[in-house]
Write a structure and sequence with these properties.
The protein is built from 8 helices and 7 strands; from the N terminus they run βαβαβαβαβαβαααβ. It is of the alpha/beta class. It folds into 2 domains: 204 residues, 3-Layer(aba) Sandwich (Rossmann fold); 36 residues, no CATH class. Strands 3-2-1-4-5-6-7 form a 7-stranded parallel sheet, sandwiched between helices. Helix 2 links the parallel strand 2 and strand 3. The longest helix has 29 residues. The chain is globular.
Length: 263
């Protein structure tokens, strides 16, 4: 299927590896110009080289910006690389796992800054330009914990739920009639560094080995496995497509069937 977005320009955050990279790869393969942002320059440069090789069109560009998107300076660097984005994929490293009794105010503020306020700032910076041009796609990578909270991820549960509530309102405002959609993409257990950190946290809390925790987690997923970044990216690319123009304000859960609810 031709997603109809060749020649568009996308900003993909946290794109040096993991789910962010998977999204950038899927968009590059669709002929989208992509600006990738991440903090680690070494991993970012490696991702940049790989994405350049994945382009179906030689005239499409891929730019890499080594910056922390959760800071005003990082966001300025991203917009210095390109001014008007048609597609924005927000993504920032999740807060660390732990026990809420150990978290101080600064921990909460950092979580909210990274996983709620930063996506809102990116939406604010781009949504009106998208509406003027008659096309825009914003996809926020959040977490399945928004629907089924994980006890050791309280910082993430709180900050991402705040973003979800915000998006539910703004996605249904006047921008929807002007070709702009905003959706949240909720990953369950995907084989990423973040998952390994979560497994290690669970192992430390329970006293079990990481391998035992991993096996039990996979066994609880109806698909019988963890997801991979490439299939996650394909879902993201579809939400960015012209075909997805009637989907907005939604929380799209990709978790191999792990969430047991009907709604």
């Amino acid at each position: 299927m031709d997603l109809g977005i060749s020649g568009k320009t996308a900003l993909v955050c946290g794109a040096s590896k993991g789910l962010g990279y998977g999204c950038a790869l899927a968009l590059v393969r669709e002929g989208v110009n992509v600006v990738i942002v991440a903090r680690g320059a070494e991993a970012l440069n490696a991702a940049h080289e790989q994405l350049l090789g994945a382009r179906p069109r030689g005239d499409a560009f891929v730019k890499a910006v080594a910056a922390d998107i959760t800071t005003p300076e990082g966001r300025e660097a991203a917009f210095a690389a390109h001014g008007d984005y048609d597609i924005v994929v927000t993504n920032a490293g999740g807060p660390p796992p732990g026990d809420f009794r150990d978290w101080e105010r600064d921990h909460w503020l950092k979580a909210v800054e990274g996983n709620m306020l930063t996506p809102i700032e990116l939406i604010k910076r781009t949504v009106d330009g998208m509406a003027r041009r008659g096309f825009g796609r914003i996809v926020n990578i959040t977490s399945s914990a928004v629907k089924a909270p994980i006890d050791i991820l309280g910082l993430s549960n709180g900050a991402r739920s705040g973003l979800t509530g915000f998006v539910a309102g703004v996605a249904r405002s006047g921008i929807a009639a002007r070709g702009v959609t905003i959706n949240n993409l909720l990953p369950g257990a995907f084989a990423t560094d973040r998952l390994e950190s979560t497994l290690a946290g669970a192992a430390a809390k329970t006293g079990q080995g990481v391998d035992a925790i991993r096996a039990a987690r996979q066994a609880a997923i109806p698909a019988g496995r963890f997801g991979n970044a490439e299939e996650f990216g394909a879902i993201c690319a579809f939400l960015c497509s012209v075909q997805a123009g009637y989907i907005t304000g939604q929380n799209v859960l990709a978790d191999g069937g792990a969430y047991p609810g009907t709604f």
